[in-house]
Design brief:
Layout: H1 2-10, E1 23-26, E2 30-36, E3 41-49, E4 55-61, E5 68-70, E6 77-79, E7 84-91, E8 98-107, E9 114-124, E10 131-134, E11 137-140, E12 144-152, E13 158-167, E14 171-173, E15 184-186, E16 191-198, E17 206-214, E18 222-228, E19 246-249, E20 253-258, E21 272-279, E22 297-302, E23 306-315, E24 325-333, E25 337-343, E26 349-356, E27 368-369, E28 388-389, E29 400-404, E30 411-420, E31 428-436, E32 439-440, E33 446-450, E34 454-462, E35 467-470, E36 475-477
Parallel strand pairs: 2-9, 11-18, 19-24
Antiparallel strand pairs: 1-3, 3-7, 4-6, 4-8, 5-7, 8-9, 10-12, 12-16, 13-15, 13-17, 14-16, 17-18, 20-22, 21-23, 23-24, 25-29, 25-31, 26-27, 26-30, 28-29, 30-34, 31-32, 31-33, 34-35, 34-36
């Protein structure tokens, strides 16, 4: 017995078993394949602890491309023995090319303290659905049913999965296109109609919102505003114009009219802008539009003196329109003498002439300021007393204008010549307006019908007494029709 005990005490002890964690990640490579730019994809990594001790994990990406991302778990991320969790990883490409990155796992696994999982994907031009709704704001005046059009402007099937009304119960869906189904499909390039019923209990205003949830990658849910009987504290967007009180003209000019202070009280921005010219003087060229007419600042080409008015309507992101804002301003010549010609056809070339003194006819140099002598030197005191032709319109409707900033005392003759038909065979109605010291001399333009090659002796301006004397309306033929500038 003693010998046996001695043998037992002197034998080697059994080896100790250390409890260690063990990281396992599947799959070993996360392949996303082709992914559209507007349709990011999320896939799961399966992360588990196959060991017999607590596993701690720290995650990081090996570069900073901002196209791969993961839903960050708690830091540190701890998995108990035998525990398994999903790690969602998202690929959101920003351009059409291949991407590659690695997701790094730093752990307390003694066998695999660091593990890299390659992430791969390609940005591709893939089709996607694109929901469009018209109108985005539906306004009811009393009970009734109105429709909205739901259109798929994309190249992939649009699947609407939820229709949710929030707000006043006076609004309801007259028909339910889901009708118990999981989705309401709309094919690419197609549209469908959704009917909204408004049954108010009284004449007070109500508001509700309809939300459409779909597989559109960048517009879900999409909101539609429902307004009944004017709404209850319904806040429309507000159009605001920083309007010039007056505009001085030394020839045509472009002025910027600013609507950037417009706002939406509900915060449904950005705003959409719609500018229009609602009043312009009779001699203005209507073929020159606002440019741009859909931005916060509109450029208005002010080509003639007179009364102008520009209107702005803004729309919020729900396409709710503001009340129109009006900017009315007067344009007055900076020049002491301003003569303007316009006519009623685009198919004739009419020419304005301003003659110094008592020269007998047009095209005399240097007394006649016209298209072929647009800036003659009429005095020795610099350019202030010299005329200038600011616009020569070769096709129609004008305007053409000749101005003198500070004309010398004396007599100036105004004449109009029907220079070229340009295909127009009938008479042309020419109109003249005269401004002296910023004041228009007639309440209505002087007008006269003219045949080809006729000259209209419009009248005389006496700048000694700052007076305008209209002449007779009779026309006379020019002996020849000049093909180019000449002196008869």
């Amino acid at each position: 017995m003693i010998l046996l005990l001695s043998f037992a005490c002197t034998s080697e002890a059994p080896p100790l078993i250390t409890l260690e964690p063990e990281l396992q990640v599947a799959p070993p490579i996360l392949e996303f394949g082709q992914v559209g730019l507007l349709t990011p994809q999320t896939r799961n990594l399966i992360v588990s602890n196959a060991g017999r001790a607590e596993l701690t994990i720290d995650l990081s990406l090996t570069n900073d491309q901002d196209v791969f991302s993961f839903e960050a778990p708690p830091n540190p991320w701890i998995l108990e023995r035998g525990e398994e969790q999903f790690l969602p990883v998202t690929f959101a490409p920003s351009t059409f090319r291949r991407y590659s990155e690695q997701l790094r796992f730093d752990t307390n696994d003694p066998e695999r303290p660091t593990v890299w999982i390659p992430l791969r994907g390609e940005g591709a031009d893939l089709p996607f659905p694109d929901i469009a709704i018209r109108p985005r704001t539906v306004e009811f005046e009393g009970p009734g049913i109105q429709s909205i059009e739901v259109r798929n402007e994309g190249e992939e099937a649009l699947l609407i999965s939820d229709l949710r009304l929030e707000g006043d119960p006076a609004f309801s869906l007259a028909t339910d296109p889901l009708d118990g189904a999981d989705t309401w499909p709309i094919a690419p390039g197609s549209s469908s109609t959704l009917l909204i019923d408004y049954a108010p209990p009284d004449e007070e205003g109500e508001i509700a919102d309809l939300f459409l949830t779909s597989n559109d990658p960048d517009e879900s849910p999409l909101q539609v505003r429902l307004v009944g009987n004017g709404g209850d504290d319904f806040g429309r967007p507000v159009a605001v114009i920083d309007c010039p009180g007056s505009v001085g003209l030394a020839g045509p000019r472009t002025i910027a009219i600013d609507g950037s202070e417009s706002f939406d009280p509900g915060g449904f921005e950005p705003l959409r802008y719609q500018w229009s010219i609602v009043q312009r003087p009779s001699g203005s060229d209507v073929d020159i539009p606002l440019d741009p007419d859909d931005q916060s600042v509109a450029d208005v080409y002010v080509d003639v003196a007179g009364a102008w008015a520009v209107e702005l309507v803004v729309f919020n992101e729900l396409d709710t329109a503001s009340e129109p804002a009006l900017c009315a301003f007067g344009a007055a010549p900076d020049d002491a003498l301003y003569v303007e010609l316009s006519w009623n056809t685009p198919n004739a070339d009419m020419d304005l002439h301003l003659i110094e003194g008592t020269a007998t006819d047009i095209f005399q140099v240097p007394e006649d300021c016209n298209w072929c002598n647009p800036a003659p030197n009429w005095g020795a005191g610099g350019s202030a007393d010299d005329p200038r032709l600011d616009i020569d319109d070769l096709a129609g409707f004008g305007p053409e204008n000749i101005n003198i900033f500070d004309p010398r005392p004396g007599v100036y003759q105004v004449k109009v010549h029907h220079f070229r038909r340009n295909g127009d065979t009938g008479p042309v109605n020419a109109s003249i307006r005269v401004w002296i010291d910023g004041i228009e001399q007639t309440t209505m333009p002087l007008s006269n019908l003219m045949e080809h090659n006729e000259v209209w002796d419009v009248g005389t301006i006496d700048m000694t007494y700052r007076m305008w004397f209209p002449g007779a309306t009779a026309n006379r033929d020019l002996p020849v029709s000049p093909a180019d500038c000449f002196t008869p």
